[in-house]
Specification:
Elements (H helix, E strand, L loop, with lengths): L1 H13 L9 H112 L8 H46 L10 H20 L1
Keywords: Coiled coil
InterPro entries: Znf-C4H2
């Protein structure tokens, strides 16, 4: 009987509608809001990641801009220095051009003066001197060109001797230093012999004769 009653109650309970306990509409709303919150939270996290990445890129760009500004300042300083150097070079070049023009004018004046003297007083004086020397049986005076060539050769010869002396001085100083060091080492290693050197008496006896011969040679 009990089994029959339970079997008849089960289909009856299955046919009844389920009734939710509590405020189920509030729970649905809460679940919907929670799902929407998760959605917006994910979107917020994604956008935050994008903003952080953009900030990192911005910081890198700003550092690059700062480095470029520093480099630009250095280049501006170098440019100002080079422009100043260029200005000084241009001023020196202008001064050099002015000095060159002045020297060219002075050289032209000296050439004109030399030509005037050569054609005037020099030619007259040389002609008179050559005539008088011819009357005295003497050869004429060398010409102006020969005198100038002689002076030029003498000047070149003196310059060459001066250059040779300047080149020989370091070698001579090196040789003197080497000889001094060598003599010092020999002086410390060798001893000076004692006693009178051999042949000193003979040399003392022959000295007056040598002086007489020298005096005779001078008188001769």
């Amino acid at each position: 009987m009990a089994s029959a009653s339970t079997s008849t109650q089960a289909p009856a309970q299955a046919g009844r509608p389920l009734v939710a306990q509590g405020d189920w509409t509030k729970n649905l709303v809460q679940l919907a809001k929670t799902a929407e919150l998760k959605k917006y939270a994910l979107t917020l996290q994604l956008q935050t990641a994008h903003i952080l990445s953009a900030h990192a890129t911005l910081d890198q760009k700003m550092r690059s801009i700062q480095d470029l500004k520093e480099q630009k300042n250095k280049l501006d300083s170098e440019r100002a220095r080079l422009l100043n150097c260029l200005r000084e070079v241009n001023e020196d070049r202008d001064k050099t051009d002015m000095m060159e023009a002045q020297l060219n004018n002075e050289c032209a004046d000296l050439r004109a003066r030399i030509q005037q003297i050569t054609d005037g007083e020099y030619a007259t004086a040389k002609r008179d001197v050559d005539a008088l020397r011819a009357e005295l049986g003497q050869p004429p005076v060398p010409g102006l060109q020969a005198t100038l060539e002689e002076k030029s050769q003498q000047y070149l010869h003196e310059r060459r001797l001066g250059a040779d002396q300047n080149n020989k001085r370091p070698a001579d100083e090196t040789l003197v230093e080497g000889a001094g060091s060598g003599s010092g080492s020999q002086g410390t290693s060798t001893k000076r012999p004692r006693g009178r050197p051999k042949g000193s008496k003979n040399r003392a006896g022959k000295a007056p004769g040598g002086d007489g011969q020298a005096a005779e040679a001078v008188l001769a």
